[in-house]
Specification:
By secondary structure, the protein is of the alpha+beta class. Helix content is 31%, strand content 23%. Helix 4 crosses helix 11. The longest helix is centred in the middle third of the chain and has 19 residues. The two termini are 29 Å apart.
Length: 363
Protein backbone atom coordinates (compact mmCIF):
# COMPACT_ATOMS: atom_id res chain seq x y z
CA UNK A 1 0.00 0.00 0.00
CA UNK A 2 1.17 3.46 -0.85
CA UNK A 3 0.09 6.79 0.59
CA UNK A 4 1.22 10.37 0.67
CA UNK A 5 0.23 13.54 2.43
CA UNK A 6 1.89 16.61 0.99
CA UNK A 7 1.89 20.17 2.36
CA UNK A 8 3.04 23.33 0.65
CA UNK A 9 5.77 25.18 2.53
CA UNK A 10 4.31 28.23 4.19
CA UNK A 11 0.70 27.30 3.39
CA UNK A 12 -1.59 28.32 6.24
CA UNK A 13 -3.79 25.41 7.32
CA UNK A 14 -5.85 27.26 9.90
CA UNK A 15 -9.35 26.11 10.61
CA UNK A 16 -12.52 28.01 11.33
CA UNK A 17 -15.72 26.17 12.30
CA UNK A 18 -14.04 22.94 11.18
CA UNK A 19 -13.04 24.34 7.76
CA UNK A 20 -9.70 25.54 6.43
CA UNK A 21 -9.21 29.14 5.36
CA UNK A 22 -8.63 29.68 1.67
CA UNK A 23 -5.47 31.80 1.81
CA UNK A 24 -4.03 33.91 -1.02
CA UNK A 25 -2.20 30.95 -2.57
CA UNK A 26 -5.29 28.74 -2.65
CA UNK A 27 -7.59 31.60 -3.67
CA UNK A 28 -5.49 32.08 -6.80
CA UNK A 29 -5.34 28.32 -7.48
CA UNK A 30 -9.12 27.91 -7.26
CA UNK A 31 -10.06 31.40 -8.44
CA UNK A 32 -12.14 30.28 -11.45
CA UNK A 33 -13.96 27.68 -9.37
CA UNK A 34 -14.64 30.21 -6.59
CA UNK A 35 -16.05 32.62 -9.19
CA UNK A 36 -18.66 30.01 -10.08
CA UNK A 37 -21.79 31.03 -8.18
CA UNK A 38 -22.67 27.46 -7.28
CA UNK A 39 -19.47 27.03 -5.25
CA UNK A 40 -18.05 30.36 -4.15
CA UNK A 41 -15.56 30.84 -1.33
CA UNK A 42 -17.63 28.92 1.22
CA UNK A 43 -18.05 25.96 -1.09
CA UNK A 44 -14.33 25.88 -1.82
CA UNK A 45 -13.56 25.81 1.90
CA UNK A 46 -15.90 22.87 2.30
CA UNK A 47 -14.22 21.05 -0.60
CA UNK A 48 -10.81 21.53 1.03
CA UNK A 49 -12.13 19.96 4.21
CA UNK A 50 -13.95 17.12 2.44
CA UNK A 51 -12.95 13.57 1.53
CA UNK A 52 -13.80 11.17 -1.29
CA UNK A 53 -12.87 7.60 -2.11
CA UNK A 54 -12.75 6.34 -5.70
CA UNK A 55 -13.51 2.63 -5.86
CA UNK A 56 -11.67 1.38 -8.92
CA UNK A 57 -9.20 3.27 -11.08
CA UNK A 58 -9.97 2.23 -14.61
CA UNK A 59 -11.17 4.73 -17.19
CA UNK A 60 -13.96 6.37 -15.18
CA UNK A 61 -12.10 6.12 -11.87
CA UNK A 62 -8.91 7.66 -13.25
CA UNK A 63 -10.78 10.58 -14.80
CA UNK A 64 -12.83 11.08 -11.62
CA UNK A 65 -9.77 11.05 -9.37
CA UNK A 66 -8.08 13.62 -11.60
CA UNK A 67 -11.08 15.96 -11.43
CA UNK A 68 -11.44 15.58 -7.64
CA UNK A 69 -7.79 16.41 -7.00
CA UNK A 70 -7.82 19.40 -9.34
CA UNK A 71 -11.01 20.68 -7.68
CA UNK A 72 -9.27 20.68 -4.29
CA UNK A 73 -11.13 17.92 -2.48
CA UNK A 74 -8.93 17.74 0.62
CA UNK A 75 -8.51 13.97 0.93
CA UNK A 76 -8.77 11.49 -1.93
CA UNK A 77 -8.28 7.73 -1.67
CA UNK A 78 -8.02 5.53 -4.76
CA UNK A 79 -8.58 1.78 -4.45
CA UNK A 80 -7.84 -0.62 -7.31
CA UNK A 81 -6.72 -4.24 -7.68
CA UNK A 82 -5.41 -4.11 -11.27
CA UNK A 83 -2.24 -3.02 -13.07
CA UNK A 84 -1.69 -0.81 -16.11
CA UNK A 85 -1.72 -2.52 -19.52
CA UNK A 86 -1.13 -1.03 -22.99
CA UNK A 87 -4.82 -1.48 -23.89
CA UNK A 88 -5.73 0.92 -21.04
CA UNK A 89 -3.93 3.92 -22.50
CA UNK A 90 -6.56 4.71 -25.14
CA UNK A 91 -9.00 5.88 -22.45
CA UNK A 92 -7.43 5.79 -18.94
CA UNK A 93 -6.07 9.31 -18.84
CA UNK A 94 -3.82 9.15 -15.77
CA UNK A 95 -1.48 6.53 -17.21
CA UNK A 96 1.27 6.48 -19.85
CA UNK A 97 3.43 3.96 -21.68
CA UNK A 98 6.04 3.78 -18.92
CA UNK A 99 3.33 2.70 -16.45
CA UNK A 100 2.30 -0.08 -18.83
CA UNK A 101 5.90 -1.21 -19.42
CA UNK A 102 6.44 -1.48 -15.67
CA UNK A 103 2.98 -3.06 -15.14
CA UNK A 104 2.47 -0.64 -12.25
CA UNK A 105 -0.60 -1.12 -10.07
CA UNK A 106 -3.15 1.45 -11.17
CA UNK A 107 -3.59 2.85 -7.66
CA UNK A 108 0.16 3.44 -7.38
CA UNK A 109 0.48 4.98 -10.84
CA UNK A 110 -2.53 7.23 -10.19
CA UNK A 111 -1.12 8.47 -6.90
CA UNK A 112 2.23 9.28 -8.50
CA UNK A 113 0.57 11.19 -11.34
CA UNK A 114 -1.72 13.16 -9.03
CA UNK A 115 0.89 14.26 -6.47
CA UNK A 116 2.40 17.06 -8.58
CA UNK A 117 -1.01 18.23 -9.80
CA UNK A 118 -2.18 19.44 -6.40
CA UNK A 119 0.18 19.45 -3.43
CA UNK A 120 -2.50 20.74 -1.06
CA UNK A 121 -4.51 17.51 -1.33
CA UNK A 122 -3.88 14.30 0.63
CA UNK A 123 -3.73 11.49 -1.93
CA UNK A 124 -3.62 7.80 -1.08
CA UNK A 125 -3.48 4.91 -3.51
CA UNK A 126 -4.32 1.47 -2.13
CA UNK A 127 -3.71 -1.75 -4.07
CA UNK A 128 -6.63 -3.93 -2.98
CA UNK A 129 -9.56 -5.97 -4.23
CA UNK A 130 -12.78 -4.68 -2.64
CA UNK A 131 -14.71 -7.56 -1.08
CA UNK A 132 -17.09 -8.11 1.85
CA UNK A 133 -14.20 -8.67 4.28
CA UNK A 134 -12.36 -5.40 3.61
CA UNK A 135 -15.00 -3.02 2.27
CA UNK A 136 -15.39 -1.30 5.65
CA UNK A 137 -11.67 -0.76 6.03
CA UNK A 138 -11.29 0.60 2.50
CA UNK A 139 -14.38 2.79 2.11
CA UNK A 140 -15.32 3.91 5.63
CA UNK A 141 -15.01 7.50 6.91
CA UNK A 142 -15.30 9.27 3.57
CA UNK A 143 -17.89 11.88 2.69
CA UNK A 144 -18.75 10.25 -0.64
CA UNK A 145 -17.88 7.08 -2.58
CA UNK A 146 -17.40 7.32 -6.35
CA UNK A 147 -17.84 4.30 -8.59
CA UNK A 148 -14.90 3.45 -10.83
CA UNK A 149 -15.42 -0.32 -10.74
CA UNK A 150 -15.76 -2.68 -13.70
CA UNK A 151 -18.42 -5.11 -12.47
CA UNK A 152 -21.87 -5.15 -10.88
CA UNK A 153 -20.92 -7.58 -8.13
CA UNK A 154 -18.67 -4.92 -6.59
CA UNK A 155 -21.21 -2.16 -7.27
CA UNK A 156 -23.93 -4.04 -5.38
CA UNK A 157 -21.46 -4.59 -2.53
CA UNK A 158 -20.72 -0.84 -2.38
CA UNK A 159 -24.45 -0.15 -2.55
CA UNK A 160 -25.09 -2.45 0.44
CA UNK A 161 -22.26 -0.82 2.39
CA UNK A 162 -23.35 2.74 1.66
CA UNK A 163 -27.04 2.15 2.32
CA UNK A 164 -26.36 0.35 5.60
CA UNK A 165 -24.17 3.24 6.79
CA UNK A 166 -26.37 5.97 5.38
CA UNK A 167 -23.52 7.39 3.27
CA UNK A 168 -23.93 8.75 -0.28
CA UNK A 169 -22.31 7.10 -3.25
CA UNK A 170 -22.40 7.70 -7.00
CA UNK A 171 -22.95 4.90 -9.51
CA UNK A 172 -21.23 5.32 -12.87
CA UNK A 173 -20.65 2.92 -15.75
CA UNK A 174 -19.70 3.05 -19.42
CA UNK A 175 -19.26 0.56 -22.24
CA UNK A 176 -18.95 1.02 -26.01
CA UNK A 177 -20.28 4.59 -26.48
CA UNK A 178 -22.97 4.39 -23.78
CA UNK A 179 -22.86 5.46 -20.13
CA UNK A 180 -24.97 5.76 -16.99
CA UNK A 181 -24.73 7.79 -13.78
CA UNK A 182 -26.92 8.05 -10.66
CA UNK A 183 -26.29 9.45 -7.20
CA UNK A 184 -27.59 7.34 -4.33
CA UNK A 185 -28.60 9.18 -1.14
CA UNK A 186 -29.70 6.50 1.32
CA UNK A 187 -33.14 7.17 2.74
CA UNK A 188 -33.82 9.90 0.18
CA UNK A 189 -33.36 8.33 -3.25
CA UNK A 190 -33.55 5.00 -4.99
CA UNK A 191 -30.51 2.78 -4.54
CA UNK A 192 -28.77 0.63 -7.13
CA UNK A 193 -30.81 -2.41 -6.10
CA UNK A 194 -34.03 -0.42 -6.70
CA UNK A 195 -32.75 0.40 -10.18
CA UNK A 196 -31.35 -2.94 -11.32
CA UNK A 197 -32.43 -5.91 -9.24
CA UNK A 198 -35.44 -7.83 -10.45
CA UNK A 199 -35.76 -5.87 -13.69
CA UNK A 200 -34.59 -6.05 -17.28
CA UNK A 201 -35.01 -2.31 -17.79
CA UNK A 202 -31.27 -1.74 -18.13
CA UNK A 203 -30.05 -3.58 -21.21
CA UNK A 204 -26.51 -4.50 -22.08
CA UNK A 205 -25.41 -5.55 -18.60
CA UNK A 206 -23.53 -8.49 -20.08
CA UNK A 207 -21.54 -6.26 -22.42
CA UNK A 208 -18.08 -5.28 -21.18
CA UNK A 209 -15.23 -3.16 -22.53
CA UNK A 210 -13.35 -6.39 -23.24
CA UNK A 211 -16.12 -7.78 -25.44
CA UNK A 212 -17.69 -4.76 -27.21
CA UNK A 213 -15.00 -2.12 -26.67
CA UNK A 214 -15.28 1.46 -25.38
CA UNK A 215 -14.43 4.94 -26.65
CA UNK A 216 -12.67 7.50 -24.50
CA UNK A 217 -15.21 10.35 -24.75
CA UNK A 218 -17.97 8.40 -22.96
CA UNK A 219 -15.84 7.57 -19.91
CA UNK A 220 -14.72 11.17 -19.55
CA UNK A 221 -18.31 12.41 -19.90
CA UNK A 222 -19.63 9.98 -17.29
CA UNK A 223 -16.75 10.78 -14.91
CA UNK A 224 -17.48 14.49 -15.29
CA UNK A 225 -21.16 13.98 -14.44
CA UNK A 226 -20.17 11.82 -11.47
CA UNK A 227 -17.70 14.37 -10.08
CA UNK A 228 -20.16 17.22 -10.65
CA UNK A 229 -22.60 15.53 -8.27
CA UNK A 230 -19.76 14.78 -5.83
CA UNK A 231 -18.84 18.47 -5.82
CA UNK A 232 -22.44 19.43 -5.09
CA UNK A 233 -22.45 17.09 -2.10
CA UNK A 234 -19.03 18.08 -0.79
CA UNK A 235 -19.50 21.84 -1.23
CA UNK A 236 -22.77 21.78 0.70
CA UNK A 237 -25.05 22.32 -2.30
CA UNK A 238 -27.33 19.33 -1.81
CA UNK A 239 -30.27 21.23 -3.27
CA UNK A 240 -28.49 21.22 -6.65
CA UNK A 241 -28.62 17.41 -6.84
CA UNK A 242 -31.11 16.35 -9.51
CA UNK A 243 -31.55 12.82 -8.14
CA UNK A 244 -32.03 11.32 -11.60
CA UNK A 245 -30.53 8.50 -13.65
CA UNK A 246 -28.64 10.02 -16.57
CA UNK A 247 -27.94 7.91 -19.63
CA UNK A 248 -25.99 9.11 -22.63
CA UNK A 249 -24.54 7.83 -25.87
CA UNK A 250 -21.80 9.93 -27.46
CA UNK A 251 -22.08 8.06 -30.77
CA UNK A 252 -25.82 8.41 -31.37
CA UNK A 253 -26.24 11.67 -29.48
CA UNK A 254 -28.95 10.19 -27.27
CA UNK A 255 -29.18 11.74 -23.80
CA UNK A 256 -31.85 10.94 -21.24
CA UNK A 257 -32.56 11.90 -17.64
CA UNK A 258 -35.23 9.98 -15.74
CA UNK A 259 -36.48 9.88 -12.18
CA UNK A 260 -36.09 6.51 -10.48
CA UNK A 261 -38.63 5.67 -7.78
CA UNK A 262 -37.61 3.80 -4.68
CA UNK A 263 -38.79 0.21 -4.74
CA UNK A 264 -40.96 -0.21 -1.60
CA UNK A 265 -39.90 -3.86 -1.49
CA UNK A 266 -36.22 -3.24 -2.27
CA UNK A 267 -33.98 -5.94 -0.83
CA UNK A 268 -31.38 -3.40 0.20
CA UNK A 269 -32.80 0.00 1.16
CA UNK A 270 -36.22 -1.14 2.39
CA UNK A 271 -35.83 -4.70 3.71
CA UNK A 272 -32.21 -4.13 4.80
CA UNK A 273 -31.12 -7.46 3.36
CA UNK A 274 -27.46 -6.74 2.74
CA UNK A 275 -26.63 -10.03 1.05
CA UNK A 276 -23.63 -8.71 -0.90
CA UNK A 277 -22.15 -7.11 2.20
CA UNK A 278 -22.63 -10.35 4.11
CA UNK A 279 -20.93 -12.31 1.32
CA UNK A 280 -24.03 -14.37 0.50
CA UNK A 281 -24.56 -13.07 -3.04
CA UNK A 282 -21.01 -13.39 -4.31
CA UNK A 283 -20.19 -16.34 -6.56
CA UNK A 284 -18.75 -19.23 -4.60
CA UNK A 285 -15.14 -19.83 -5.60
CA UNK A 286 -13.20 -23.06 -5.19
CA UNK A 287 -9.81 -24.31 -6.27
CA UNK A 288 -10.05 -26.76 -9.14
CA UNK A 289 -6.88 -28.69 -9.90
CA UNK A 290 -3.35 -27.42 -9.55
CA UNK A 291 -3.74 -24.26 -11.61
CA UNK A 292 -7.45 -23.49 -11.89
CA UNK A 293 -10.23 -21.66 -10.09
CA UNK A 294 -13.91 -22.59 -10.35
CA UNK A 295 -16.57 -19.87 -10.08
CA UNK A 296 -20.05 -21.00 -9.07
CA UNK A 297 -22.60 -18.34 -10.10
CA UNK A 298 -26.02 -18.08 -8.44
CA UNK A 299 -28.94 -19.28 -10.57
CA UNK A 300 -27.66 -17.74 -13.78
CA UNK A 301 -28.56 -18.95 -17.26
CA UNK A 302 -26.16 -18.08 -20.07
CA UNK A 303 -26.82 -17.99 -23.81
CA UNK A 304 -23.59 -19.61 -24.98
CA UNK A 305 -24.23 -18.70 -28.61
CA UNK A 306 -24.59 -15.01 -27.80
CA UNK A 307 -21.53 -15.20 -25.56
CA UNK A 308 -19.50 -16.75 -28.39
CA UNK A 309 -20.53 -13.92 -30.68
CA UNK A 310 -19.48 -11.27 -28.12
CA UNK A 311 -16.12 -12.96 -27.56
CA UNK A 312 -15.32 -13.48 -31.24
CA UNK A 313 -13.39 -10.19 -31.54
CA UNK A 314 -11.40 -10.64 -28.33
CA UNK A 315 -10.77 -14.26 -27.44
CA UNK A 316 -8.99 -17.01 -29.36
CA UNK A 317 -9.49 -20.75 -29.79
CA UNK A 318 -13.24 -20.47 -29.10
CA UNK A 319 -15.03 -23.82 -28.97
CA UNK A 320 -18.68 -24.40 -28.15
CA UNK A 321 -21.12 -27.27 -27.82
CA UNK A 322 -24.57 -27.62 -26.24
CA UNK A 323 -23.09 -27.72 -22.75
CA UNK A 324 -20.12 -25.37 -22.56
CA UNK A 325 -18.01 -22.73 -24.24
CA UNK A 326 -14.23 -22.71 -24.01
CA UNK A 327 -11.90 -19.87 -25.05
CA UNK A 328 -8.45 -18.42 -24.43
CA UNK A 329 -7.38 -14.95 -23.36
CA UNK A 330 -3.67 -15.51 -22.98
CA UNK A 331 -2.29 -16.70 -20.65
CA UNK A 332 -5.66 -17.97 -19.34
CA UNK A 333 -8.20 -20.49 -20.56
CA UNK A 334 -11.84 -20.18 -19.51
CA UNK A 335 -14.56 -22.79 -19.71
CA UNK A 336 -18.10 -21.48 -19.18
CA UNK A 337 -21.21 -23.60 -18.61
CA UNK A 338 -24.88 -22.84 -19.31
CA UNK A 339 -25.65 -22.32 -15.60
CA UNK A 340 -23.05 -19.54 -15.30
CA UNK A 341 -20.39 -21.72 -13.74
CA UNK A 342 -16.87 -21.19 -15.06
CA UNK A 343 -13.42 -22.70 -14.68
CA UNK A 344 -10.49 -20.33 -15.11
CA UNK A 345 -7.29 -22.16 -15.91
CA UNK A 346 -3.91 -20.49 -15.48
CA UNK A 347 -4.29 -19.00 -12.01
CA UNK A 348 -4.98 -19.92 -8.39
CA UNK A 349 -5.81 -16.33 -7.43
CA UNK A 350 -9.53 -15.92 -6.73
CA UNK A 351 -9.38 -12.15 -7.35
CA UNK A 352 -7.85 -12.71 -10.80
CA UNK A 353 -10.54 -15.28 -11.62
CA UNK A 354 -13.32 -12.91 -10.52
CA UNK A 355 -11.83 -10.10 -12.57
CA UNK A 356 -11.61 -12.25 -15.70
CA UNK A 357 -15.20 -13.44 -15.23
CA UNK A 358 -16.42 -9.83 -14.93
CA UNK A 359 -14.41 -8.72 -17.95
CA UNK A 360 -15.43 -11.46 -20.35
CA UNK A 361 -18.75 -12.86 -19.10
CA UNK A 362 -20.23 -9.67 -17.64
CA UNK A 363 -22.98 -9.11 -15.11
Amino acid sequence: MFGVIIAVAGLRSQTRWGRRFVDDFLQEKYSRQILFEGIGLGGQERLLGASAVVAGCGAIGAAAANLLVRAGVGRVRIVDRDFVEPSNLQRQTLFDESDAREALPKAVAAERKLRPINSSVSIEGLVADINPRNVGELLNNFDVILDGTDNFETRFLINDFAVKRGEPWIYAAAVASYGLMMTVQPGKSACLACLLEGTEAISGMEDTCDTVGVVGPIVNLVASLEVADAMKLLSGNHEALHGRLISCDVWTGHFQSVHVDRNPDCRCCCRHDFSYLEGQAQPHITMCGRDSVQIHEHNRALDLGALQQRLSRTATDIRQNDFLLRFRVAPYEMTVFCDGRAIVKGTTDAAVARSLYARYIGA
